[in-house]
Automatic annotation (TrEMBL):
Protein name per its UniProtKB record: C4-dicarboxylate ABC transporter permease
Keyword tags: Cell membrane, Membrane, Transmembrane, Transmembrane helix
Main localization, broad class: membrane
Coiled-coil segments: none
InterPro entries, per the entry: C4_dicarb_anaerob_car-like, DASS-Related_Transporters
Transmembrane spans: 12-32, 74-94, 114-133, 165-185, 197-218, 255-277, 283-302, 314-332, 352-372, 409-427, 439-460
Keyword Chaperone: no
Pfam families assigned to the protein according to its UniProt record, in alphabetical order: DcuC
Compartment(s) where it occurs, according to its Swiss-Prot or TrEMBL record: Cell membrane
GO cellular component terms attached to this protein's record: plasma membrane
Membrane topology reported for the UniProt record: Multi-pass membrane protein
Length: 462
C-alpha cells in the first residue's frame, strides 16, 4: 500500500458528523452555566424580555441524552420530516412519468447552443421563491431536479445541488418579501412590514450575480475536465455523469404532469399567504396533486403508489437528517444553555464603538445561527436585545434588521446544524466537507458584500 493511501483520511458519514456535534453540545452543558430570560406573550409571539437574564439550576443529563435528543429532534421537526417524505413521494410519481427528464431535455434542445443559460435561469427562479415565500426546507425536494438538469448539461451533482441551494439562498439573503425572517424581525423592531426593500433589492442582485458566477465557473471547469469534479467518485459510482442531450419526445401527458406540479406550488403560495397554511396543508396538497399526476401520466393505481413509495425512499436519508440536526438544538434547549450563549454574546456589544456595532451584530447573528438555525426563532430571540442597543447608540432600527437578516441567511449554507443544508446535501449524496471546499469562497464573498453594504447604509443614514 502506498504512503498516500495510508495517509488518506476518509470523510465522516453525515450522521456520524452530526452525532459528534451532539456529543460536543452535550459536553458544553457541563461548562456553560444554565440560564434563562423571562419571556412575555405579545399577540402570537413570545418575546424575550431584555435585562431579565438569570442563572437557573443546571441540567446536564447522562450520556443517554445524546441519543435521546435524536428521536426528540425527529418529533420536534416532524412536520418538516413528513413534509419531505410526502413531497418527495409526489415528485417521485412525476419523475416516474418521465415528465421532469423529458421536459428538461426538451428545454435543452430548445435552448440549443445556449443551454448553459439553464444555470442562471434555474438559480434566478429559485432566488425569486427565496425572497418571496422564504423557500427553505422545500429546496431539499428540488435538489434531484437540479442534479438532473446539471447532468443533462454535462456537469456534476455538486453543480446541480448548488443551483438549487445557492439559488434559493441568494433570494433568502435578499429577503425583500420574506415573511419568516425580515417580516418577523421588522415586526419585533416595530418597523413597517417589508420597509427598506429598495436597498435590499440592490444588494440581492449583487448576491445573486456572485452565486451564479461561482456555479457557472465551477460547472464549466467540470464539463471541460471531468476529473476536476469535487464529487468525481460519486459520478463514477452513479455511472450517470454524461447524459444524452438529444431531444426526447415530450408528450402532452408529461406536460400536464409538470403543469400539475406548478399548480401545486401556486396553490401552496396562495395557501400560505391567504389561508395561513402550514406544512401539514402543503403536504396534503402535494400528495393529492402527485396522485393526480400519476393517473394523468398513465401509471395506474399500483404504478402510482409504487412510485410514491420509491420517491419517499429517495429522500429517506435527507428526511432523517432533519431530525438529527434538530436534535442538537433540542439538547441545548433542554440543558438551558441557549439563553446563556445569547446573553454572553450580546453583553460583548456594550463595549464596542458605535461605528462597529452593526458589523459586530452581523457577526454575532452569523455565528448564533449555529445554535439557533431557525430564522424566525433567532429573530424573536435576539431582536428584542439588539433594538435597545441600536436605540442607545442612535442607530436606525432598520440596520439591526439588516444585520440579523444577512447574518442568519448567509450562515444557513455553512453550518452543519442547518437541517435544510444537511438534508439537501444528503439527498444529493454530497459530503459536507466537499460542500465546504466548493462554497467557502462564495460565502466569504457574500459576507464582504453584505458588510460593505451595511457600512455604506450606515453612513447614508439608512
Amino acid at each position: 500500500m502506498s504512503k498516500s493511501k495510508k495517509l488518506q483520511i476518509k470523510t465522516p458519514h453525515t450522521y456520524a458528523l452530526l452525532i459528534m456535534i451532539i456529543i460536543i453540545a452535550w459536553l458544553m452543558t457541563y461548562f456553560i452555566p444554565a440560564g434563562e430570560y423571562q419571556r412575555e406573550k405579545k399577540g402570537d409571539q413570545t418575546l424575550v424580555v431584555s435585562g431579565t437574564y438569570h442563572e437557573v439550576a443546571a441540567h446536564h443529563g447522562s450520556f443517554l441524552e445524546v441519543f435521546r435528543a435524536i428521536p426528540q429532534g425527529l418529533i420536534s421537526g416532524s412536520e418538516i420530516v413528513f413534509y419531505i417524505f410526502l413531497v418527495g413521494g409526489a415528485f417521485g410519481i412525476v419523475h416516474k412519468t418521465g415528465a421532469f427528464e423529458n421536459g428538461v431535455k426538451k428545454a435543452m434542445h430548445a435552448l440549443g447552443k445556449a443551454n448553459y443559460l439553464m444555470i442562471p435561469l434555474t438559480m434566478t427562479v429559485f432566488s425569486i421563491l427565496g425572497f418571496s415565500i422564504g423557500l427553505a426546507e422545500e429546496t431539499i425536494i428540488f435538489v434531484p431536479i437540479g442534479i438532473l438538469i446539471a447532468r443533462t448539461l454535462g456537469y456534476d451533482a455538486l453543480t446541480g445541488a448548488s443551483m438549487v441551494i445557492l439559488g434559493a439562498a441568494s433570494g433568502f439573503i435578499g429577503g425583500m418579501l420574506n415573511p419568516f425572517t425580515v417580516g418577523v424581525a421588522q415586526k419585533v423592531a416595530e418597523l413597517p412590514m417589508f420597509s427598506g426593500w429598495g436597498l435590499r433589492t440592490i444588494i440581492y442582485f449583487f448576491i445573486l450575480i456572485a452565486a451564479i458566477t461561482t456555479v457557472m465557473s465551477y460547472g464549466h471547469k467540470v464539463k471541460k475536465d471531468k476529473t476536476k469534479s469535487l464529487v468525481y467518485d460519486l459520478e463514477q459510482e452513479d455511472n450517470d455523469f454524461t447524459q444524452s442531450e438529444t431531444s426526447h419526445h415530450f408528450s402532452k401527458r408529461e406536460a400536464l404532469c409538470l403543469m400539475l406540479i406548478v399548480l401545486a406550488i401556486f396553490i401552496n403560495v396562495i395557501g400560505i399567504f391567504t389561508l395561513n397554511w402550514s406544512f401539514n396543508e402543503m403536504s396534503a396538497n402535494f400528495l393529492l396533486i402527485g396522485i393526480m399526476a400519476g393517473f394523468v401520466g398513465g401509471l395506474g393505481f399500483n404504478g402510482t403508489f409504487d412510485a410514491l413509495i420509491e420517491g419517499m425512499e429517495n429522500v429517506l436519508f435527507g428526511a432523517l437528517v432533519v431530525g438529527f440536526a434538530k436534535g442538537i438544538i433540542v439538547l441545548l434547549e433542554d440543558s438551558k444553555v441557549i439563553d446563556t450563549i445569547v446573553h454572553g454574546m450580546t453583553t460583548l456589544l456594550a463595549d464596542v464603538p458605535s461605528s462597529f456595532v452593526i458589523l459586530v451584530m452581523f457577526i454575532f447573528q452569523f455565528f448564533l445561527n449555529f445554535f439557533i438555525p431557525s430564522g424566525s426563532g433567532q429573530a424573536l430571540t435576539t431582536m428584542p436585545l439588539m433594538v435597545p442597543i441600536a436605540d442607545l447608540l442612535h442607530i436606525n432600527r432598520q440596520m439591526t434588521v439588516l444585520a440579523f437578516q444577512y447574518g442568519d441567511a448567509i450562515s444557513n449554507v455553512l453550518f452543519p446544524t442547518s437541517a435544510i443544508l444537511m438534508g439537501a446535501l444528503a439527498v444529493g449524496k454530497i459530503p459536507y466537507t466537499k460542500w465546504l471546499k466548493f462554497a467557502w469562497k462564495l460565502i466569504l464573498l457574500w459576507v464582504i458584500i453584505c458588510a460593505v453594504a451595511m457600512s455604506v447604509a450606515l453612513l447614508l443614514g439608512y
